[in-house]
């Protein structure tokens, strides 16, 4: 069975977030890095759980949680970017988070229409 696009993208995003977490910890940033790690990897975990949802309602709920986690992750990324607390380019991370939010929003809206 072919993996859905959102499953693949959320998994790949989690991997990039893990790399960012390691970089932040190496620079002795421990608070925001943990927040980003938690929310950034939770997106894919919730997407994966949604795939096994026993009902459309459960599917929508898990993807809604994933969307919220993506928004939280984007918040932390924006905070790092604008504060320049750890100087680096966060553009790609922000673009990827925004893409996930758009995809998840579209999937949730479509699923809700079909309930």
Q: What's the short version?
A:
This protein is 82% helix and 0% strand.
Could you walk me through the main structural features you see in this protein, from its secondary elements to its overall organization?
The model has no long low-confidence stretch (mean pLDDT 95). 32% of the residues are buried. The chain has 115 residues and is mostly helical. It has 4 helices and no strands.
Provide keyphrases for this structure.
mainly alpha, de novo design (two linked rop proteins), 115 residues, elongated, 4 helices
What's the number of helices? Answer: 4
Write down the CATH topology. Answer: de novo design (two linked rop proteins)
CATH superfamily: 23S rRNA-intervening sequence
**Broad structural category:** mainly alpha
Helix-strand topology string: HHHH
How many beta strands in the DSSP annotation?
A: 0
CATH class: Mainly Alpha
Low-confidence stretches: none
* Strand-residue proportion: under 5%
Profile the largest sheet.
Answer: none
Helix content: over 70%
The backbone outline, from C-alpha atoms, is elongated
What integer value in Å does the Rg equal?
15 Å
Q: Could you say what the CATH architecture is?
A: Up-down Bundle
Kindly give the count of domains.
1
Q: Roughly how many Å apart are the termini?
A: 24 Å
- Overall average pLDDT: 95
């Amino acid at each position: 069975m072919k993996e859905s696009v959102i499953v693949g993208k959320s998994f790949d995003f989690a991997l990039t977030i893990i790399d960012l977490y390691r970089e932040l910890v190496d620079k002795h940033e421990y608070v925001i890095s943990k927040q980003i790690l938690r929310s950034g990897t939770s997106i894919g975990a919730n997407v994966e759980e949604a795939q096994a949802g026993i009902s459309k309602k459960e599917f929508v709920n898990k993807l809604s949680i994933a969307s919220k986690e993506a928004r939280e992750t984007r918040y932390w990324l924006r905070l790092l970017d604008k504060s320049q607390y750890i100087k680096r380019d966060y553009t790609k991370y922000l673009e990827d988070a925004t893409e996930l939010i758009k995809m998840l929003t579209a999937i949730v809206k479509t699923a809700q229409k079909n309930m």
